[in-house]
Amino acid sequence: MESVSTHFCRVLDIIMESKMVTTTHKMHKLNFRKDEDKGFTLIELLVVIAIIALLLSILMPSLRKAKDQARDVLGFSRLKQFSLMYEMHTQDNDDSLPAGWWGGTMWMIDLLPYYGGVDDIRLCPKATKLLSDTSDPYNAGVFTAWGKYGEGSWEGYIPMWAREGMYGSYGANGWAHNPPPEADSLYAYPENSIGVDSGILFWRKKTNVTRPTTVPLLSGCMWDGTTPMMSDAPPGEEGEQTAYQMSSFCLPRHNGKVQMLFMDTSARKVGLKELWSLRWHRQWASWAMDQQWPSWFDKYPD
Questions:
Q1: How far is CA 8 from its chain centroid?
Q2: How much is the pLDDT for 67?
Q3: What confidence score (pLDDT) does residue 12 get?
Q4: How many domains does the chain have?
Q5: What pLDDT, on the 0 to 100 scale, is given for residue 57?
Q6: Residue range of the domain that includes 9
Q7: Tens digit of pLDDT for each residue in 267-281?
Q8: According to the model, what pLDDT value does residue 196 have?
Q9: In this predicted model, what pLDDT tens digit does every residue of 24-76 receive, in sequence order?
Q10: Over the stretch 100-130, which tens digit does the pLDDT of each residue have?
Q11: Do 204 and 259 belong together in one domain?
Protein backbone atom coordinates (compact mmCIF):
# COMPACT_ATOMS: atom_id res chain seq x y z
CA MET A 1 0.00 0.00 0.00
CA GLU A 2 1.27 3.36 -1.04
CA SER A 3 2.13 5.68 1.74
CA VAL A 4 0.31 8.92 2.44
CA SER A 5 3.35 10.88 1.30
CA THR A 6 3.21 9.20 -2.10
CA HIS A 7 -0.45 10.15 -2.56
CA PHE A 8 0.31 13.64 -1.50
CA CYS A 9 3.08 13.93 -4.09
CA ARG A 10 0.79 12.71 -6.86
CA VAL A 11 -1.90 15.20 -5.94
CA LEU A 12 0.71 17.94 -5.86
CA ASP A 13 1.93 16.95 -9.37
CA ILE A 14 -1.61 17.06 -10.76
CA ILE A 15 -2.17 20.51 -9.27
CA MET A 16 1.12 21.77 -10.69
CA GLU A 17 0.35 20.39 -14.17
CA SER A 18 -3.05 22.04 -14.06
CA LYS A 19 -1.50 25.38 -13.14
CA MET A 20 1.06 25.04 -15.93
CA VAL A 21 -1.65 24.42 -18.54
CA THR A 22 -3.64 27.38 -17.29
CA THR A 23 -0.56 29.59 -17.31
CA THR A 24 0.39 28.44 -20.82
CA HIS A 25 -3.14 29.17 -22.06
CA LYS A 26 -3.04 32.63 -20.53
CA MET A 27 0.37 33.29 -22.09
CA HIS A 28 -0.94 32.19 -25.47
CA LYS A 29 -3.94 34.54 -25.19
CA LEU A 30 -1.62 37.35 -24.13
CA ASN A 31 0.66 36.75 -27.12
CA PHE A 32 -2.34 36.58 -29.43
CA ARG A 33 -3.51 39.96 -28.15
CA LYS A 34 -0.01 41.36 -28.70
CA ASP A 35 -0.09 40.06 -32.26
CA GLU A 36 -3.44 41.77 -32.75
CA ASP A 37 -2.02 45.00 -31.34
CA LYS A 38 0.74 45.05 -33.97
CA GLY A 39 -1.65 46.19 -36.80
CA PHE A 40 -2.81 49.77 -37.55
CA THR A 41 -6.36 50.81 -37.00
CA LEU A 42 -8.23 52.62 -39.78
CA ILE A 43 -7.95 55.93 -37.94
CA GLU A 44 -4.19 55.51 -37.58
CA LEU A 45 -3.86 54.83 -41.30
CA LEU A 46 -5.92 57.91 -42.17
CA VAL A 47 -3.74 60.05 -39.89
CA VAL A 48 -0.57 58.77 -41.60
CA ILE A 49 -2.04 59.44 -45.06
CA ALA A 50 -3.07 62.96 -44.02
CA ILE A 51 0.44 63.70 -42.72
CA ILE A 52 2.02 62.47 -45.98
CA ALA A 53 -0.40 64.59 -48.04
CA LEU A 54 0.42 67.64 -45.91
CA LEU A 55 4.16 67.11 -46.35
CA LEU A 56 3.74 66.75 -50.11
CA SER A 57 1.69 69.95 -50.32
CA ILE A 58 4.51 71.75 -48.50
CA LEU A 59 7.32 70.20 -50.55
CA MET A 60 5.84 70.29 -54.07
CA PRO A 61 6.10 74.09 -54.57
CA SER A 62 9.71 73.93 -53.40
CA LEU A 63 10.43 71.06 -55.77
CA ARG A 64 8.82 72.91 -58.69
CA LYS A 65 10.81 76.03 -57.84
CA ALA A 66 14.02 74.01 -57.67
CA LYS A 67 13.22 72.44 -61.06
CA ASP A 68 12.59 75.88 -62.58
CA GLN A 69 15.84 77.18 -61.15
CA ALA A 70 17.72 74.20 -62.58
CA ARG A 71 16.26 74.92 -66.03
CA ASP A 72 17.22 78.57 -65.72
CA VAL A 73 20.79 77.62 -64.86
CA LEU A 74 20.96 75.25 -67.83
CA GLY A 75 19.52 77.91 -70.13
CA PHE A 76 22.08 80.51 -69.06
CA SER A 77 24.83 77.93 -69.46
CA ARG A 78 23.81 77.30 -73.06
CA LEU A 79 23.61 81.00 -73.86
CA LYS A 80 27.06 81.58 -72.35
CA GLN A 81 28.45 78.79 -74.51
CA PHE A 82 27.03 80.55 -77.56
CA SER A 83 28.69 83.79 -76.44
CA LEU A 84 32.05 82.00 -76.67
CA MET A 85 31.13 80.66 -80.11
CA TYR A 86 30.25 84.14 -81.37
CA GLU A 87 33.55 85.42 -80.01
CA MET A 88 35.46 82.70 -81.86
CA HIS A 89 33.49 83.39 -85.03
CA THR A 90 34.29 87.11 -84.99
CA GLN A 91 37.96 86.38 -84.30
CA ASP A 92 38.08 83.96 -87.22
CA ASN A 93 36.24 86.37 -89.58
CA ASP A 94 37.93 89.75 -89.16
CA ASP A 95 35.51 90.90 -86.43
CA SER A 96 32.50 90.24 -88.69
CA LEU A 97 29.20 88.99 -87.35
CA PRO A 98 27.52 86.13 -89.28
CA ALA A 99 25.94 87.02 -92.63
CA GLY A 100 22.53 85.69 -91.60
CA TRP A 101 19.66 84.80 -93.90
CA TRP A 102 21.01 87.17 -96.53
CA GLY A 103 24.23 85.18 -96.81
CA GLY A 104 22.45 81.85 -97.15
CA THR A 105 23.10 80.56 -93.60
CA MET A 106 21.98 81.35 -90.09
CA TRP A 107 23.68 81.25 -86.71
CA MET A 108 23.03 77.51 -86.21
CA ILE A 109 25.03 76.86 -89.41
CA ASP A 110 27.67 79.57 -88.95
CA LEU A 111 28.48 78.40 -85.41
CA LEU A 112 28.23 74.68 -86.18
CA PRO A 113 32.03 74.19 -86.28
CA TYR A 114 32.19 75.40 -82.67
CA TYR A 115 29.44 73.27 -81.12
CA GLY A 116 29.99 70.16 -83.21
CA GLY A 117 26.37 69.29 -83.93
CA VAL A 118 25.26 68.94 -80.29
CA ASP A 119 21.72 69.80 -81.34
CA ASP A 120 20.09 70.16 -77.92
CA ILE A 121 22.31 73.13 -77.13
CA ARG A 122 19.97 75.14 -79.39
CA LEU A 123 17.02 74.38 -77.10
CA CYS A 124 15.83 76.58 -74.27
CA PRO A 125 15.22 74.01 -71.48
CA LYS A 126 11.68 75.37 -71.03
CA ALA A 127 10.72 75.15 -74.70
CA THR A 128 11.27 71.67 -76.05
CA LYS A 129 7.96 70.87 -77.82
CA LEU A 130 8.89 70.59 -81.51
CA LEU A 131 6.47 72.17 -83.97
CA SER A 132 7.21 69.36 -86.42
CA ASP A 133 5.60 66.96 -83.96
CA THR A 134 2.32 68.91 -83.99
CA SER A 135 -0.50 68.97 -86.52
CA ASP A 136 -0.02 72.71 -87.10
CA PRO A 137 3.71 73.38 -87.56
CA TYR A 138 3.25 77.17 -87.76
CA ASN A 139 1.21 77.56 -84.59
CA ALA A 140 4.15 78.65 -82.45
CA GLY A 141 3.71 79.56 -78.80
CA VAL A 142 5.56 80.42 -75.61
CA PHE A 143 6.95 76.94 -75.01
CA THR A 144 7.32 75.58 -78.55
CA ALA A 145 10.54 74.96 -80.47
CA TRP A 146 11.05 75.55 -84.20
CA GLY A 147 11.89 72.49 -86.30
CA LYS A 148 12.65 69.84 -87.01
CA TYR A 149 13.14 71.18 -90.51
CA GLY A 150 12.17 68.67 -93.18
CA GLU A 151 10.62 66.18 -90.73
CA GLY A 152 7.17 65.35 -89.38
CA SER A 153 4.59 67.99 -90.27
CA TRP A 154 7.47 70.07 -91.72
CA GLU A 155 8.35 67.38 -94.24
CA GLY A 156 9.60 69.00 -97.41
CA TYR A 157 10.28 72.38 -95.76
CA ILE A 158 13.97 73.13 -95.26
CA PRO A 159 14.85 76.85 -95.31
CA MET A 160 17.76 77.82 -97.53
CA TRP A 161 19.64 79.05 -94.44
CA ALA A 162 19.28 75.79 -92.44
CA ARG A 163 19.70 72.04 -92.76
CA GLU A 164 17.37 69.08 -92.54
CA GLY A 165 16.67 67.93 -88.99
CA MET A 166 17.70 71.19 -87.31
CA TYR A 167 15.62 72.47 -84.39
CA GLY A 168 15.84 74.86 -81.46
CA SER A 169 14.03 77.45 -79.37
CA TYR A 170 16.60 80.25 -79.49
CA GLY A 171 16.64 82.93 -82.16
CA ALA A 172 19.12 85.57 -83.28
CA ASN A 173 18.63 89.31 -83.34
CA GLY A 174 18.36 89.69 -87.12
CA TRP A 175 20.15 93.05 -86.98
CA ALA A 176 23.21 91.41 -85.38
CA HIS A 177 24.39 90.25 -88.82
CA ASN A 178 26.69 91.38 -91.58
CA PRO A 179 24.90 90.70 -94.89
CA PRO A 180 26.90 90.80 -98.12
CA PRO A 181 26.68 94.08 -100.09
CA GLU A 182 24.40 92.67 -102.77
CA ALA A 183 21.86 91.69 -100.10
CA ASP A 184 21.18 95.31 -99.11
CA SER A 185 19.27 95.97 -102.31
CA LEU A 186 17.62 92.54 -102.40
CA TYR A 187 16.30 92.57 -98.84
CA ALA A 188 16.10 96.27 -97.99
CA TYR A 189 12.78 97.60 -96.79
CA PRO A 190 11.96 100.98 -95.25
CA GLU A 191 12.10 101.48 -91.53
CA ASN A 192 9.07 103.79 -91.56
CA SER A 193 9.90 105.58 -88.35
CA ILE A 194 13.38 106.58 -89.55
CA GLY A 195 13.02 106.72 -93.31
CA VAL A 196 16.22 104.82 -94.12
CA ASP A 197 16.91 101.50 -95.80
CA SER A 198 17.43 98.55 -93.52
CA GLY A 199 21.03 98.09 -94.65
CA ILE A 200 22.03 100.95 -92.37
CA LEU A 201 20.53 99.23 -89.35
CA PHE A 202 22.77 96.15 -89.22
CA TRP A 203 25.53 96.08 -86.62
CA ARG A 204 27.78 94.15 -89.03
CA LYS A 205 30.89 94.05 -86.82
CA LYS A 206 31.37 93.83 -83.07
CA THR A 207 33.55 96.94 -83.11
CA ASN A 208 30.54 98.88 -84.40
CA VAL A 209 28.56 98.04 -81.30
CA THR A 210 28.26 100.79 -78.72
CA ARG A 211 26.89 100.07 -75.26
CA PRO A 212 27.02 96.30 -75.93
CA THR A 213 25.24 95.51 -72.66
CA THR A 214 22.04 96.82 -74.27
CA VAL A 215 22.33 95.10 -77.69
CA PRO A 216 20.67 91.65 -77.93
CA LEU A 217 22.51 88.88 -79.74
CA LEU A 218 20.59 85.64 -79.06
CA SER A 219 17.42 84.97 -77.08
CA GLY A 220 14.49 82.68 -76.51
CA CYS A 221 12.44 82.98 -79.68
CA MET A 222 9.54 81.37 -81.58
CA TRP A 223 11.74 81.04 -84.67
CA ASP A 224 15.45 80.94 -85.47
CA GLY A 225 15.58 84.73 -85.54
CA THR A 226 13.79 87.91 -86.60
CA THR A 227 14.32 91.67 -87.00
CA PRO A 228 12.34 93.73 -84.45
CA MET A 229 11.32 97.26 -85.40
CA MET A 230 10.68 100.24 -83.16
CA SER A 231 7.11 100.46 -84.41
CA ASP A 232 6.33 96.85 -83.43
CA ALA A 233 3.28 96.61 -81.17
CA PRO A 234 3.15 94.05 -78.34
CA PRO A 235 1.08 90.92 -79.04
CA GLY A 236 -2.49 91.22 -77.81
CA GLU A 237 -2.45 87.75 -76.26
CA GLU A 238 0.23 85.78 -74.45
CA GLY A 239 2.17 83.62 -76.89
CA GLU A 240 0.47 85.15 -79.93
CA GLN A 241 2.51 85.49 -83.11
CA THR A 242 1.64 88.65 -85.02
CA ALA A 243 2.91 90.45 -88.09
CA TYR A 244 5.18 92.43 -85.77
CA GLN A 245 8.64 90.89 -85.44
CA MET A 246 8.99 91.60 -81.72
CA SER A 247 6.19 89.13 -80.95
CA SER A 248 8.62 86.28 -81.67
CA PHE A 249 10.79 87.40 -78.74
CA CYS A 250 7.95 88.42 -76.40
CA LEU A 251 7.87 85.07 -74.61
CA PRO A 252 7.48 84.93 -70.79
CA ARG A 253 9.13 81.51 -70.48
CA HIS A 254 11.05 82.33 -67.32
CA ASN A 255 8.51 83.58 -64.78
CA GLY A 256 7.46 86.45 -67.00
CA LYS A 257 10.91 87.20 -68.37
CA VAL A 258 13.09 86.34 -71.36
CA GLN A 259 16.57 84.83 -71.13
CA MET A 260 18.86 86.81 -73.41
CA LEU A 261 22.50 86.94 -74.52
CA PHE A 262 24.02 90.36 -75.21
CA MET A 263 26.86 91.61 -77.38
CA ASP A 264 29.19 91.97 -74.39
CA THR A 265 28.83 88.17 -73.76
CA SER A 266 26.65 88.75 -70.67
CA ALA A 267 23.36 86.88 -70.24
CA ARG A 268 20.43 87.89 -68.05
CA LYS A 269 16.66 87.89 -67.79
CA VAL A 270 14.80 90.70 -69.53
CA GLY A 271 11.31 91.94 -68.66
CA LEU A 272 8.69 92.04 -71.40
CA LYS A 273 8.42 95.84 -71.49
CA GLU A 274 12.19 96.13 -71.39
CA LEU A 275 12.36 94.44 -74.82
CA TRP A 276 11.38 97.77 -76.39
CA SER A 277 14.12 99.65 -74.54
CA LEU A 278 16.94 97.46 -75.89
CA ARG A 279 18.98 98.59 -78.87
CA TRP A 280 18.14 95.94 -81.45
CA HIS A 281 19.60 97.91 -84.38
CA ARG A 282 21.91 100.89 -84.86
CA GLN A 283 19.13 103.49 -85.12
CA TRP A 284 16.97 102.34 -82.20
CA ALA A 285 15.46 105.26 -80.29
CA SER A 286 14.17 105.48 -76.74
CA TRP A 287 10.66 106.44 -77.85
CA ALA A 288 10.14 102.80 -78.87
CA MET A 289 9.02 102.35 -75.26
CA ASP A 290 5.93 104.49 -75.90
CA GLN A 291 3.56 101.55 -76.28
CA GLN A 292 0.06 100.62 -75.21
CA TRP A 293 0.82 97.56 -73.12
CA PRO A 294 -1.72 94.70 -73.31
CA SER A 295 -3.48 93.63 -70.12
CA TRP A 296 -1.73 90.23 -69.98
CA PHE A 297 1.55 92.08 -69.29
CA ASP A 298 0.12 92.92 -65.85
CA LYS A 299 0.71 89.32 -64.76
CA TYR A 300 4.43 89.86 -65.16
CA PRO A 301 5.50 93.16 -63.61
CA ASP A 302 9.02 94.29 -64.48
A1: 94
A2: 85
A3: 43
A4: 2
A5: 80
A6: 4-39
A7: 999 999 999 999 999
A8: 46
A9: 444 454 454 455 555 678 887 888 888 888 888 887 777 788 888 899 999 99
A10: 988 888 999 999 999 988 999 999 999 999 9
A11: yes
- Other CB atoms within 10 Å distance of the CB of residue 254: 21
DSSP characters over the chain: ---HHHHHHHHHHHHHHHHHHHHHHHHHHHHHHHHHHTSPPHHHHHHHHHHHHHHHHHHHHHHHHHHHHHHHHHHHHHHHHHHHHHHHHHHHTTTBPP--GGGT--HHHHTHHHHTT-GGGGS-TT--EEGGGSS-TT---TTEEEE-TTSGGGTT---TTS-TT-EESEEEETTS----HHHHHHH--EETTTTEEGGGG---BGGG-SSGGGSEEEEE-SSSEE---TTPPPPSSTT---SSGGGGT---TBTTEEEEEETTS-EEEEETGGGGGS--STT--GGGG-----GGGGGS--
Do 293 and 213 share a structural domain?
Answer: yes
Looking at the structure, do residues 12 and 133 belong to the same domain, yes or no?
Answer: no
Query: CA angle 66-260-172, nearest 5°?
Result: 135
